[in-house]
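EI: anyone free to look at a 400-residue chain?
SC: sure, send it
EI:
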Amino acid sequence: MAYSRVVPRSTPLLDIHKSSGGRIVEFAGWLMPVQYSGIIDEHKTVRTAVGLFDVSHMGEVFFAGPRAVEAVQRVVTTEVGRLRDGEAVYTVICRPTGGIVDDCIVYRRRQDQLFIVVNASNEVKDYTWLAENAGGIARVTNRSADFALIAVQGPKAVATLCKLTKLDLPAVKYFGLVDGEIAGMKVTAARTGYTGEDGFEVFTSPVDAPKMWGALMEAGKEFGVKPAGLGARDTLRLEARMCLYGNDITDETTPLEAGLNWVVKLDAGDFIGREALQKQKAGGVRRKLVGFVIRERAIARHGYPILAPEAARRAAPSAAEGVRGAAEGRSERSERAPDGPPGSIGVVTSGTSSPTLGYSIGMGYVPTELSQPGQKILCDCRGKLASAEIVKGPFYKRPA
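SC: here you go
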């Protein structure tokens, strides 16, 4: 039997990445740069100056028509009706079980036109879900091929962009968007990002993308601009404690378990997953996604087991519950957490050595009773038990 391999897709900037020394890898079905000068160097450039990311692999799904707001409200957990023209909001798309289809950003251009930016790995799945569940009252179209997307991130991001436009970008609020021209090209610029730094994500046409990239690199020279890849994007978002779909959140986790309570507005309307989330909230969340730090020489990577201290480990229920059991209030127990050995209480979902902080950080699910800040846990790092402490809030927060 012959098997055909799916050819990975490429963004309009692939040739520029190659000529700039980017190391290209296949990610979510796309050929993308994982790094250029090095992950740590690119990470620190974004924290101190300005970096450019090609995020053209992200998907854009548009909702149009007089009932567009209502259609979007059916499929996300946040109150979309409160958005005004030129505003955006981070939210999640849920299944009836409360499990997360994807996390996304909803942008409102007008009352009759909104669009959702979804993760690249979920583009087809998300569009199908959105069209099937909201297409009856609005026109739902996948316009991902119509856009290139460049993220300009860092404390010098706005200054870099202002050299190329008459738009009053400093006046654009966080999670605001504006249409206009940058470097003589039509764009939508949104003050959003995935790094924990200030900056904009610039939507432009695929044809204009190489020229836009070149203009941004030239404008940012005086600030030390550098291109940055997927590697730095991951370490930056983890320092800011932003979830990664497929790691920290999945179809088997709910936003309440993931600490995304602030995006769940149970009075926003009859959105998909609302009933399950109501039940879970009333019954109590049995596991939580926590952030932890390790100050010894060890890094807890994705998939590593989490263990409780000996005294707590004997009494702690396992974190090995799916969304359905939690939503229905079942109190099933297991001898082990998913992907963990007997005695484990959870699993690391993301982990790295923080270039900014100088020690290891991570996230993972643990039973609710062991989720309080200050709680000590153990991470099994390839047979070495590393002591970790649960902490509150982001690991890094940019200066005010």
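EI: The domain at 9-56+147-238 is CATH 3.30.1360.120 (Gyrase A; domain 2).
SC: 👍
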